[in-house]
Amino acid sequence: MHKSRGFTLVELLVVIAIIALLIGLLLPALAKARESARATKDSSQINQVHKAMLIYANSNADNQLPIPGKIRPWWSGERAGGGPSGEGYPGRFGDERGNMNNASNLYSVAIAQEYLKPEILIGPTEVNPIVKQDQDFDYTMYRPTSGTYWDPSFAADIKGNGSSIQDDTDDWGGTERPDDECNASYAHLAIHMNNISVPGGPSGGNGQENRRRTRFWVNYGASTCPVMGTRGVQSGITSGSRYEKSPTLQLLGPKQEWHGNLCFADNHMEAVKTFYASNYMCQSEGGNIPDNVFAFEMECGDDDNFMEADAWIGMCKNAFDAGNNFSVGSLMQYDDLNN
């Protein structure tokens, strides 16, 4: 008769060693596959956010994506101190309220009108601890007949000091935003008004249109200009400690180099490894030059419109109305640096 026997200790140890070796070989591949899946989901979400805003533009008379200062403009009487009771024509005719054009109001108005859900604004690769979903967005704040158009507590200030942003002369515009909280992950095209005067640039004056958004923040924009995407390093800096310590390097790809997803005006997506969008160039005296999408580059464009010719995306802290001093450095907000 044959006697059955079990594994010897040596055989068992060999099997365990082989399994451990296989796991060691597979884990990096699995981690890479998981990272790739998150990056793909992130790209899809950015694309859907822009697509929702294109749908908004399709029903808008001027074909523009949301501009908060136009959705809640100045009515006659308000500028002269008449307050909210000034004569108004909801949806038309008012002067743009430029200091409403920030990321918080932009995303909030899209949610309030149900073009977006709050969860889609949080990237699946997010690493900044202050970025969290708005769990209690107040849809009842969308009351055009009462002069309110979005939830003023929604925060898209990546610095986390949202309550310090004063974007209106009354109490409704956003003073309720919480500190240490940001409810959105994604950068968008600068949508400020161009009411400014600088040497060699436009003469300024109330009501001037931002050339950048006129060309690209519309539903017929060209395929060359990025209008939304992954957040970048402050001012598009590509070296030094400010670059190396930026949390945005940890969002996609290797942790030592910035990688991102960019959505262009025609809604196509590109995965990039540089701040210079592959197809976008600026016209300058020296001809076409590559454009850093996170930098406000004065060399881009002609003498009359050089400030508005380049692509420029970020998370707008504030924008500037007539009478405000324009400061390029304070228009966008950036992540605090890692230690």
What is the distance, rounded to the nearest whole angstrom, between the alpha carbons of the first and last residues? 72 Å
Mean pLDDT: 80
* Content of β-strand: 5-15%
**H/E element sequence:** HHHHEHEHEEEEEE
Helix fraction, binned, reads 10-25%
Q: Radius of gyration, Cα only, in angstroms?
A: 24 Å
**Spatial shape:** elongated
Largest sheet: 6 strands, antiparallel
Q: What oligomeric state do the depicted chains represent? A: single chain
Give the helix/strand class.
Answer: alpha+beta
Which spans of ≥5 residues are poorly predicted at pLDDT below 50?
Answer: 80-86, 196-207, 301-306, 321-327
Number of helical regions: 6
Question: How many structural domains can be distinguished in the coordinates?
Answer: 1
- Record field, number of beta strands: 8
Strand line-up of the largest beta sheet: 4-3-2-1-7-8
Brief description of this entry?
This protein has one domain (36-333).
What does the model show?
It is a single chain. The protein is α+β, with helices and mostly antiparallel strands and 339 residues long. It has one domain (36-333). The chain has helices at 9-58, 68-71, 78-82, 103-112, 211-216, 241-244, and strands at residues 187-189, 226-229, 260-264, 269-272, 276-284, 287-292, 313-316, 332-333. The chain has a 6-stranded antiparallel beta sheet with strand order 4-3-2-1-7-8. A hairpin with a 4-residue loop joins strand 3 (260-264) and strand 4 (269-272). The protein is elongated and about 95 Å long. The model is unreliable at 80-86, 196-207, 301-306 and 321-327 (pLDDT under 50).
